Amino acid sequence: MKSQASDFGRRTEFLLDQLPSSQAPIGVFDSGVGGLTVLRELYRQLPNESILYFGDTARLPYGTKSRSEILQYVREILTWMVQRGVKMVIMACNTSSALAIETVRSEFPDLPILGVILPGARAAVQVGKRIGVISTPATAASNAYRDAVLEVDPTAEVWQIGCPEFVPIVEANRIDEPYTYQVAQEYLEPLLEQEIDTLVYGCTHYPHLAPVLRSLLPRSVQLIDPAVHVVKSASQELDLLGLKQVRSPRPTEFWVSGNPQPFIEISRQWLGCTPLVEQMTLPSVIWQSLSVESESTSL
After folding, report:
1. Can you say which residues are annotated as belonging to the binding site?
2. Which reaction(s) does its UniProt entry say it catalyses (predicted)?
3. Engineering a disulfide at 100: which of 74, 75, 114, 162 sits with its beta carbon 3.0 to 4.6 angstroms away?
């Protein structure tokens, strides 16, 4: 196991020696279409940046997977993105941010890797003290949002609810169905009982559910979309590193690991255009070489 970890480190070092210039793309990945909320913010806040987007649709949802599985997936995706020459990666997936970000930051030390949890937590404490978080079961179980909020403001109170049905509902584009309202009411009920004043979207899929959630919440409850704030952080980081793009961007590259068609249909609705989406299976050699090491690092 030790030799495999060393091999991974050497392979990572070799790839990072080739890190690119300001004209290189920003890598964005998620388990599926949830990361499109981050992509829209990138288009709005950083319109000159080129983007490489990967949706791991063959393996969604991430929120019911183990830490070792998530860590393996993230390593595979990051290795591929570095090979594609990205200058920064935004983990547009709360589950990955909660379970893998610290490990992969140490393994890819020269690659800026941003997660969505800390920017979301910082934004939440600026507007409220009684904070609810809806997320995948894995993110909720990790207590990542609670820890991040309390690190910023120890006087805040945090309640977290795992919502296993939300990602499949969004991926199937079933947002307007009566069943979705019923499920959302059940998830929100414990938070409403605590009289929350702030609700954090603890999954990048969830802003797509905003009309449903808004209809069920008191108007006084503030909604926090971490996608907005992680892109602000990305902009600041690019400035600090001198990597912000000032020329016109190249067209966004879209890749998925599953059938592209469902992704295309939802993207057309949410982005207002029809993206060219290519299918890619991560190399089996990477899967095999990382699998033993991933198990050895599981909690």
Report:
1. 30-31, 62-63, 94-95, 204-205
2. L-glutamate = D-glutamate
3. 74
Q: Within this chain, do residues 110 and 128 fall inside the same structural domain, yes or no?
A: no
91/124 same-domain check: no
pLDDT for 282: 78
**Contact (Cβ atoms closer than 8 angstroms) between residue 209 and residue 166:** yes
pLDDT digits (tens, 9 = 90+) for 180-198: 999 999 999 999 999 999 9
Q: 213 and 282: one domain?
A: no
Helix (H, G, I), strand (E, B) or coil at 122: helix
Among 209, 226, 243, where does a domain finish? Answer: 226
Catalytic residue among 33, 36, 71, 93: 93
Tens of pLDDT, residue by residue over 152-164, are 999 999 999 999 9
Taking alpha carbons only, the member of 49, 43, 29, 35 closest to residue 243 is 49
- Binding site for substrate: which residues? 30-31, 62-63, 94-95, 204-205
Check which CATH number belongs to the domain holding 156 and give it.
3.40.50.1860
Examine the domain organization and report whether 109 and 167 are in the same domain: no
Domain housing 47: 2-115+229-296
Distance CA 247, CA 276 (A): 22
- Name the band, by pLDDT with cuts 50, 70 and 90, for residue 20: low
Active site (annotated) includes residue 273: no
Does residue 203 carry a catalytic annotation? yes
Query: How confident is the prediction for the chain on average, in pLDDT?
Result: 89
Distance CA 242, CA 236 (A): 10
Does one domain contain both 46 and 111? yes
